Protein: Amidohydrolase family protein
Amino acid sequence: MEQRYRWKNKQLREHVQVLNGELSPSLLLKNATYLHSTLKKWVQGHIWIYGDRIVYTGDQLPENLEQCEVMDCESQYLVPGYIEPHVHPFQLYNPQSFSKYASQTGTTTFVNDNLMMFLQLEKKKAFTLLREFSKMPVTMYWWTRFDSQTEMVDEEVTFSNGEVKSWLEHDSVLQGGELTAWPRLLEGDDLILHWMQETKRMRKIVEGHLPGASDKTIAKLRLLGIDGDHEAMTGEDVYKRLIQGLTVTLRHSSIRPDLPALLDGLKEKGIDSYDSLLFTTDGSTPGFYEQGVLDFMIKMAIDKGVPPIEAYNMASYNVANYYNITHLHGMIATGRVANINFLRSKDDPTPVSVLSKGTWVRKNGEQMEDSTEINWGPSGFTPLSLDWEVGYDDLQFSMPFGIEMVNDVITKPYSISINPSEELLDSDHDQSFLMLLDRNGKWRISTMIKGFSKGVMGFASSYSNTGDIILIGKSKPDLIAAFNRMKEIGGGIVLAENGEILHEIPLPLSGLLSEKEMPELIEEEKTLKGLLKERGYRFSDPIYTLLFLQSTHLPYIRMTQKGIYDVMKKTVLFPTIMR
Structure:
């Protein structure tokens, strides 16, 4: 990946030759007013770029301009490219489609979750895919998980010591975590602690996942090696983390749009130092990004009274400093990667032009063509191919209790009050059939779900935490119809009613990801949300409902590969059934 030693000796000599006048810069930004991230001041000067690197910033102009594009920046303000420190790049979109879209509003560096690749791909194919991503005009770094955030069959094989350490040693991996299994750590899981120690030995970061944690719990986890957390929901939460020495990432996402409350909370707590604060959208679903990515968070902060320079640093320099990569990112200064956003004014963070790795990805308001092709197939992301069927023998629902939705993602048990043996359930209540099926067809777990909707007949999804199949609905024939269509299109999300397919979102990349560009995917998701709401879905984010049905880092009851799982008691209540 050549992240640790990004430029070879020959290239470094060429960079010096540019300053000697022996070579021409590839791009000269004249008369620039730009943010100097460590001085925290707007300064003026000229910026020389050669290839993907800034080779000089200052008062001098190059002697050699033979092969140089010259841009006069007199009427603009330049800031470093924004860095998203906590990306889940597999929320229907894929890393390429999301980063391409995000780059248009100035976010050009990404620190990505590897969970879906960890669960779906063997290590060699995953690392091949990382090399594919490095060809793009954006910069991608990664984290490696220490746990699956669910109860998996053979998790100890998937998350073996060798697999986790191979990821940790990879040059493009900057951190371990996010650590959703911190209760296991506190209870004495020495393998997780060993991985954290290895992360520290490699001078990398450990990211926590600490919703609702007390100050003593935060202190314990800080002692064990956690460096930061993104789960603060109030100003008090931010203060508790800062006081224990953590870096705090302020979140504004599709299921936790917390930034306004967090910014108000900072004022209430008298927090006016921002060096240990970052921004994240925390892997929101596609429609959330219609308003932008980090640019709109910066704007919210400025509008709430955060000094503009501090807001820009929270989206760039502070992130690079946290990850120990300020020699490459987060600054407009000599030696850094040429990631620069060109703004109309100091308080408008949505750029007119965007430079990423020295390449224009947006120029004068126009998106530039990116011809990078990702070879998904050889890397393991191929259309889902199921050689098994769902029949009425599978559609048996005899559990004494089901799963009730408290909100988009929190679920609790409830006593089933209807006869689940009927082929079609009444629409005067909000109880529906619910099934999780092994993507290889080996096992199933069946119960009822309350609160999803009154009118969804058949809903099938190959998109889930582990890539297993979820079926929800009131009509057994429509459940089968939705499943069959999902299978036919090679994986995806399908809504069926009265034997007809109302809507589908094809996910041909392993049944988990779309190949479409973000604008088209946003429209597909908006249509799905509208149809589900018309049929009684009363929450805001059905995609996260699908993703977190299996996630044992949330209370109180979950469907997992091992069966119905009680999160608080850490017990499988009803095991999966072999088909």
